[in-house]
Structures are given as structure tokens and as C-alpha cells.
Specification:
alpha/beta, TIM Barrel, 8-stranded parallel barrel
Length: 250
């Protein structure tokens, strides 16, 4: 749960494909967004230097295949080694076994994001929460009100609020809620979706993702009661936005 010691955090996002920092539009692998600054470690350093205290990384190759592999694994290890003291590195994508989760935590990742496995193997999720505590978070990605799995390809047929309540009952204390239709659009977060989840799981740390673009978006997420907000495409398009976005988290 969030406490007075848990500040609202802005999470600059880095999505990895073949070791490069990219973004997807609406989560579609055939709609790849990138620019010349695709070195993930350079982008992370820019965030740390600007004053960011958290970083959000998704292994898109693993999300699609379910098999975390090189070169992304080495990039994640470098990001973990290079983060400042006290900063939070959260990583997800393709974590469908306890071994994959353990391997990421062994690299120095602070928090792992479990998606597909949380819905398909709740017993395994509960064991991981028992073993790793707050290092385990669940990512619930929503389109039309239901959760998508397998790299956002398959509709799990479960309402986001119901899925959120179920994993919180297993001990999960942090949720990442993504409005897929807002992801990569610069259109602002899905505030109604976030409100529904926050109402379903009061006291749980909910991180907003999908469409977060402006300082006003960050303030809106914080005002709702979110514990943080992920910003992806907005910074890919214009890294100079970082300072204003970080100011909005205070």
C-alpha cells in the first residue's frame, strides 16, 4: 500500500525491441515509433540527470514471445547497474515463470511487472508475492474495459476492476493500469478507467499508464489518488518535456 514514505513518482518509459528503445502505437507491433535516440542507457541517463527517481522498462520481444532473451537482458542489466541510489527500476514483459521473475530481480531490478501469468497462474503469483513482497507488481492492460494478455493480443474476458481485486487479494500492493487505446497517442490517460480501479482497490498503489503527455495529465493522475504515472511517447518525441513533467509530480 502507499504510505507517507511513498512519494508520487513519474516513470519515464523505455520499451525494448532488439536492444533498442522504441514505442508502439496502441500496443501494435506493426506501428513502431522511434527516433534517432534509441540507446536505452543514454535515454535512462537523461532521465536520471533531469531528476527522475524511477524508470519503467518493458521487454517487448519477451512480451510477444514469452521468452526473455538477449540483447534486451543485457540492456536491462546495464540499466540496473547505472541507476542512482534510491531510484526505482521496474521492468516487465514476458514474465510467465518464477524463474524469469527471479532472474530479473537477480539483475538488480527493484520491481517486476507480471501480466499474463497473474491471470493464468494465480497460485504462482501468490507464491511470488510471498517470496518477494513489494518487488512484485501486476500490470493490467485494458481495452474496452477488459484485460488483455499475451502482449495485448488476447482478450482475457475479465473486467479490469475484477482482475485488480483478485490480485490484490493475493497480496499484490502495486498495480500498473494501462489504457491500451491511449497508449502512444499523446491523448491523455483514461481517467475513468483509473477511477474504477482505484475505487475497487482502495489503499493500493496504482500507477497510471497510456497517453500521459502533459504536466496536467500528471497532476490529474495524482489528484485521482494514483501513486505514479508512466510517460512514454511524449518523451520519445521531445525529451525536453522531462523537466516540466517532473515538476508536476511534486
Amino acid at each position: 500500500m502507499t504510505t507517507s514514505a511513498d512519494p508520487f513518482r513519474l516513470y519515464p518509459a523505455i520499451d525494448l525491441i532488439d536492444g533498442r528503445a522504441v514505442r508502439l502505437l496502441h500496443g501494435q507491433f506493426d506501428q513502431l515509433l522511434t527516433n534517432e535516440l534509441d540507446d536505452a542507457c543514454v535515454r535512462a541517463s537523461m532521465g536520471w540527470e533531469a531528476g527522475a527517481t524511477a524508470l519503467h522498462v518493458i521487454d517487448l520481444d519477451a512480451a510477444r514471445t514469452g521468452l526473455p532473451a538477449e540483447p534486451n537482458r543485457s540492456v536491462i542489466a546495464a540499466l540496473a547497474a547505472g541507476k542512482p541510489a534510491g531510484a526505482v527500476l521496474q521492468v516487465g514483459g514476458g514474465l510467465r515463470s518464477a524463474a524469469a521473475v527471479d532472474a530479473l530481480l537477480d539483475l538488480g531490478v527493484d520491481r517486476v511487472l507480471i501480466g499474463t501469468m497473474a491471470l493464468r497462474s494465480p497460485d504462482e503469483l501468490e507464491r511470488l508475492v510471498t517470496r518477494h513482497g513489494r518487488a512484485i507488481a501486476v500490470a493490467l492492460d485494458s481495452r474496452d474495459g477488459t484485460v488483455r494478455v499475451d502482449g495485448w493480443v488476447e482478450d482475457a474476458g475479465v473486467a479490469v476492476e475484477i482482475a485488480a481485486s483478485a490480485v490484490v487479494e493475493l497480496g499484490v500492493e502495486t498495480l500498473l493500469i494501462t489504457g491500451i487505446d491511449r497508449d502512444g497517442t499523446l491523448g491523455g490517460p483514461d481517467l475513468q478507467l483509473l477511477e474504477r480501479v482505484l475505487a475497487a482497490v482502495p489503499g493500493v498503489a496504482v500507477i497510471a499508464a497510456g497517453g500521459v503527455t502533459t504536466p496536467a495529465d500528471v497532476r490529474d493522475a495524482r489528484a485521482l489518488g494514483c501513486a505514479g504515472a508512466v510517460v512514454g511517447r511524449a518523451l520519445l518525441d521531445d525529451p525536453s518535456r522531462m523537466a516540466a513533467l517532473l515538476q508536476a509530480q511534486a
